[in-house]
Amino acid sequence: MNSRPRKNNLGVPNLYLVINKKTGQIKYRYKNILSGKFKMLKTRSREEAIIKAQQLNAIIAQKLLDREAAAILEADNSQGITVAAWIDQFVEIQKHRAESGEIKTSTYDNARWKLNPVKEKCGRLKLGQFNTLRINEYLHEKYVVRDKKRMAQAVRSRLIEVFKEAVAAGHFPADKPNPAEVAKTVRVKVKRSRLTLDVFNKAMEWAQKNQPEWQWRSYQLALLTAQRLTDVGGFKFADIRKDNGIEYLGIVQGKGGNRLMIPMDLHLEAINWTLRDIVSACRNRVVSPYLLHHTKHVGRAKPGQQVRSKSLSNGFAEAIRAVKKDWGEYNPPSFHELRSLSERLFEEQGINTQHLLGHKHKTTTDTYHDARGHDWIKVKIS
Fold it and tell me: Model's pTM, two decimal places?
């Protein structure tokens, strides 16, 4: 039996000499002061044992220093603002921006809605304690494991803004990385089906028999202009203007603020419509500044009032489900897919779709052009 480790005169802390009483064999043990456990060193050389013990002492000393530093920083953070308190201030900042017209009211509402669950779950933490590890854990438990990866992406984006604003307000150190930005990016496989012209035509036919006129006019406008849902819903007759004798529909995109002028005579060959045809059809007996407006009382809505984007989106979803119930592993196309279909149809005509969609980079336009396997690809032989 080996004798118990005992202190020796090797001159190195935590290094012990062990002599086997029966064989006289000498071994060296090292005591890890972090765990309190002994570990036999794989050497019988006194010099090598000393070197290894010195190296281990240096490594463990650094770990102890790191722990002390973390404890000091944690103590400093404990005096800072809580996550809940800062989110309240952040949301208030967004509210003032919405009231001044700097951002949309929907952007403010969206921020408040996405950050409320963060407050409930992590609100008691100090802002400095809401680190990358905790953000990853929150997003994983709240969204990823429930297959809500899109939401995880959206909440992470909001948290990045929260910390940027905190730096500007002096609640988070500017020399530290943004913990939400460093957090793991959630990858999402696209499950939404692309909209084809055949399905669109069937949906239009069904909508004209079963939905209000403003509903299916919105589909036509989206296809003729390739614009987003909120932009389509906000089109006004006053947006029509002349430049050098040519009439245009002027659009200031809600996302990015790009300013577009789409000719009223823009013709989509695949369905034989012009933008002028559809805009003219939006004029009716009800006076309204909006192309898409209610023609009678519907709930709280009055004749002439703008149609809500949510109503347009829900109506399109209803029409799509009515003409095709089974989409396999994909989700049915949303209203936004009209933008992609428009891009593909106009691109076939040779229209500069990057300009039409208002994209700064062609790579973004290429994303819309990808039919995700839902269209036949024609191979040109001449």
Answer: 0.54
